[in-house]
Specification:
With about 70 residues, this protein is of the alpha+beta class. About 60% of the residues lie in helices and about 20% in strands. α2 packs antiparallel against α3. Belongs to the eukaryotic ATPase epsilon family.
């Protein structure tokens, strides 16, 4: 039998993100605020060409630009 997250059409990473958000939201105010701050992350990347690093960008900005361009 397949795992419930797989049967629902989720990836394992997405399943973990949903579960973590549910746990953080169930906490009392003080611990919830601390947990929400820990839950935020920022991924940065840069393209390398000919041995030189290009501009460093955040994944969030890149995703927003891509969504705006696709509309």
């Amino acid at each position: 039998m397949a795992a419930a997250w797989k049967a629902a059409g989720l990836t394992y990473n997405r399943y973990l993100a949903v579960a973590a958000r549910a746990v953080r939201r169930s906490l009392k105010d003080g611990p919830r605020l601390a947990a929400e701050r820990r839950g935020q992350s920022e991924l940065r990347f840069a393209k390398w060409e000919n041995g030189k690093q290009g501009e460093v960008k955040t994944m969030a900005e890149t995703n927003q630009q891509a969504q705006a361009e696709s509309k």
